[in-house]
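Q: Joint fold for the lines below.
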Amino acid sequence: MDQRIIKERHKLLRYLEEKGLRLTKGRESVFNEVMATHGHFAAEELVKGCKEHQRDVSRATIYRSLREMLEAGVIRETAFGEKHQHYEHVYDETLHHHARCVRCGTFIEFDDLGEEDRYRPLLEKQGFKVLGHELHFYGICHACQ
Amino acid sequence: MDQRIIKERHKLLRYLEEKGLRLTKGRESVFNEVMATHGHFAAEELVKGCKEHQRDVSRATIYRSLREMLEAGVIRETAFGEKHQHYEHVYDETLHHHARCVRCGTFIEFDDLGEEDRYRPLLEKQGFKVLGHELHFYGICHACQ
DNA sequence: ACTCCTATGAGACAGTGTATCATCTTAAAA
DNA sequence: TTTTAAGATGATACACTGTCTCATAGGAGT
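A: Joint structure:
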């Protein structure tokens, strides 16, 4: 199995143990489905995906598991003005951000430069435990000018 | 009246005229309520706010007006990992960012450090005209740990 | 007054996410 | 092994946000 997935799995296990929770078949299915997904995904896509590729897991369990994986740092939110929440897993991708054209809505992706790290100590001084961050630029793309 | 609000009002009027629409009492109420709001706001807050401070405008009209003001460039979306869309008016360019607790949803605000400026040339080299940016941290706040 | 187009409110509707609760499972104690 | 307590799950009801439809109202020009 992919080394990176094993690492993420450990992350999840550590989190669960810390909370006194177990890695059940339900949670495992959600984890597997998430890891099998490329790019961004929505919760409802997972509901369908789990039913198809894994075992039939109820919506309640999927939403619960997603929240746990979020807190475990296995996935992160990528909200960008859509009507529903989007996620992506953190593992194989280099951290990237998005610039969105306010006219046509298309995205440009660009790599993280680590510039935001200076904010972390500020937040942690306030007792805020940082799990991740997103940087969104908005503007007008080349085609729309 | 605030000079900036007058300017925004003109923006809206130009847009409406261009579309062959009228500045009705309903639209005006929504506009006024938006301009009277500080910081971010959600659509449903406007529904209540209009009823309280302006005239009783139906939800349908408010959502419709919001979309128009969005296209007119009077407000813009500020997407967080939230269940509903948030907006803010454009004239009041905020220089702060947000960290959101994934457990309780509360926000911590922090000032912009200008760290993101290194991204601008990268984007502009691609022909992307930057209008602004938002930085979102997510994690777990002090109270929720 | 007539006509055409826009504006509006009421309410039905769909989608996303949450809360409840009865039931099942598991780990560990006895 | 049996008991027990806590966590896990699914079904389902529910709340909320946002959209759509449709009947009616209103304004501008003829």
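Q: Anything notable?
A: The mean pLDDT of chain B is 83. The longest strand of chain B covers residues 129-140.
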